[in-house]
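Support case: user asked for a sample of complex input and structure output to validate their parser. Sending the pair below.
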Amino acid sequence: MNQSLLQHFDILFNPHSVALIGASDKLGSWGAGILSRLLASSFPRRVYPINKNASEIRGLKAYESIAEVPDPVDFAVIAIPFPQIPTVMEECVGKGVKAALIISGGLAETNEEGVRIEKEIVEIASRGGIRFIGPNCMGHFDTSSDLSMVAFVGQVRKGPVGVIAQSGGYGGRIVLGGLDKGLGFSKFVSSGNEADLHLEDYLEYLAQDEATKVIALYIEGLREGRRFFQLAREITRKKPIVAMKAGKTATAARAAKSHAAALAGSEAIYDTLFRQSGVIRVEEDVELLDVTSALLDLPLPKGRRVGILAEGGGSSVVTTDVCELTGLEIAPLAPTTLEKLNSILPPYWPHGNPVDTTDAIVLGQQVIFPCLSALMEDENVDAIMLLGGIVKAADFPPLEKEHPLLREKMDKFIQGMEEEELRNIDVVAERMHQCQKPLIISRGINAAVRSSRVFNRLREKGIPVYPIPDRGAKVLAHLVRYSEYLRGE
Amino acid sequence: MNQSLLQHFDILFNPHSVALIGASDKLGSWGAGILSRLLASSFPRRVYPINKNASEIRGLKAYESIAEVPDPVDFAVIAIPFPQIPTVMEECVGKGVKAALIISGGLAETNEEGVRIEKEIVEIASRGGIRFIGPNCMGHFDTSSDLSMVAFVGQVRKGPVGVIAQSGGYGGRIVLGGLDKGLGFSKFVSSGNEADLHLEDYLEYLAQDEATKVIALYIEGLREGRRFFQLAREITRKKPIVAMKAGKTATAARAAKSHAAALAGSEAIYDTLFRQSGVIRVEEDVELLDVTSALLDLPLPKGRRVGILAEGGGSSVVTTDVCELTGLEIAPLAPTTLEKLNSILPPYWPHGNPVDTTDAIVLGQQVIFPCLSALMEDENVDAIMLLGGIVKAADFPPLEKEHPLLREKMDKFIQGMEEEELRNIDVVAERMHQCQKPLIISRGINAAVRSSRVFNRLREKGIPVYPIPDRGAKVLAHLVRYSEYLRGE
């Protein structure tokens, strides 16, 4: 990317000194929230609160204006009512600020006056060599430099996911949801009205950022569609881009305009744009996080033929439905696989894919992992969906009114089962990567499952567990299509 | 329903004495699991373990066959390999058993021999006046009589949901998922191959069961479509039926046949059948539980016009999308509502539906509940979707490295915010029922949210909170259509 822009980005994401214009100690306010984030950083960074009505905030000397700060300032955060922004931006130019973030709303997303003031701000910044994020946004963060302007998000786990969101709230959902799921993040930008820097600029920056391995986008409307297409086509060869595009219906598109001054554009155009540039389009944020995790943890499948292993017929039927309906194929099993399964399962198993273990498990037999291995080794199988049959310990109802001796025996039994599952998971995870066949699990998830050792081991090993098979099939279909795109199919 | 059938059902769901044929103390086996459930019951019920190779199981005297039991037995559970079932069924007839449950598989779902044996079992039972559940199923339970044959489910919360499932595994998912969600259950049947009793029989039984307020079905194939239609048309006038129908694709339908010997039938026919009889059709079990809860907790809306209140533009755009795409309408707000909202929100709010609170909340203003009231009072609004803006305390990142005094101030601030939300929720819940306008919330749900007082209060008050607006829109669309069906629209 352009060297001058890169320099501005380096300041935005890792400034030496920050002036917080609109710093406050009023709890719940944006100015107080950002100051908390700045003070929580482990990086030695000079922070200057700017506030006309205070001489000290949270133990730091406060200044009436940025002009009064005695040291150089390379980055300014602006969180004050919008009519005052042009004046403040002039002062930033005077001070030699290079990069800024404008949190405040009330500009181009509202009315003609807002449009006028926003233009004025852009002119002043542009004249003074300041590049800025926003306005009308919720800030950005960078976990490498431990910088965060995002007041409503606490300490963020470092990791490979970079996020650009044309809605701060939705961006926040993605980050908070991802943290809950165990994901880590590299950089985040809530791009707001994109008066100066556009989503496409951030995209170019994340493309060259080594900490970022997957790029997640929340889009309402692109300002530079052609540039996006060209960038995405290059980037998706190296790192996946997952995009949620909102504002599909006419009313929603109007709402997008009044919210982020974005033009939603035609849905068909977006579909084509994403498809032709290898961007993975998702419908909502849970799906976005599912796919993002899967891209980081799972191998890309070589084809779309799924082996389904289900503990119980209902699961096998439902999973077959969702797989076929998302465009996956039910793999025809090789004769050798059928033979192997014959030797594992009761004689009345359905002898085909989906592989229903019937009542083998009810009879207390350990069949899941042998069956999994058989499917893993089948050349006709590109990916595996496992339904139930795992995290078994969590399925044992607690013993009520039972004799202590039985309780002890039961505990031992369950523990043995758990140990065996843990060992098997380690083996399967390794085989999965060797064979390049993603394994996706679906099973009911309640509190007992969430807190179990087996569930956490699966998480560590990057084998996803979804409460409904539908989510697994969607993720798998995305991986398949992305893999096909990369192979030029 | 037919008095003789009703009598058989009363024995099935509340027997005086139970013979468990295939009782065992082998941990993990079905025979051991059912015995645990029987022993855990608080009801005084005679239990007779039947096992050729044991004289005592879990402290109870075991018998070689049911014929040897000295007292009368009205209900027999059969959990032994399928070839022995005809002989055992003859013995049950000889003993005067009135009702049975056959857990064992290996029958009509497998091959010609299985079909033959299953027919033989039906003939013997029919001749001897025994009605039975199964074979190839996972049992049934009744919380009123504290009877459970479902080995893999522990103590079940009593409540208004009755479940009939043509897959034991999927039925189990529904019950375990429901318990995790706070739902309670009346009766449950895993209907298996339905060699004797059909889903339609259970449906008729649940229809007249006073403890059952909503009926949830997992269907793979109906054996008596016309009867189902006639029953459903009557029942849905009084209590809602929610149905998940699997086996949509050809491969899945084949899997259904080999699993529960069910004929999946044409998708279009099922759609028409459900629509014309007022049955609410859902796609998967999470949706099934969402709708079931909502039917119990929320008032039915009078129309399909939704008021959207969103903390943040992204949420308002996404929610508008999902509402319109599920067939809901975005309500045109009344002029008086716009005036009220003008007095609550910053001047640059978008002045229409969806109502985006813009940065009002960022500025620390309490606007959500006043806005909610305004929407509740609008005659153009039939239902409300709230996005974010609530359970605020969970959104405050923990303070790191902060001064203890600030920490104390912060804690008080958050607690005050929480108290106010709790008070407001009580008011809103009451208004919701008075105005007959369901309120559905969507917001990110992480551990902090799940454990918060406000989240739990919402749950108590029956106001649903979903992690994505999509789930809320689907639920609302179901309520709207059911309400329209009942009004004859």
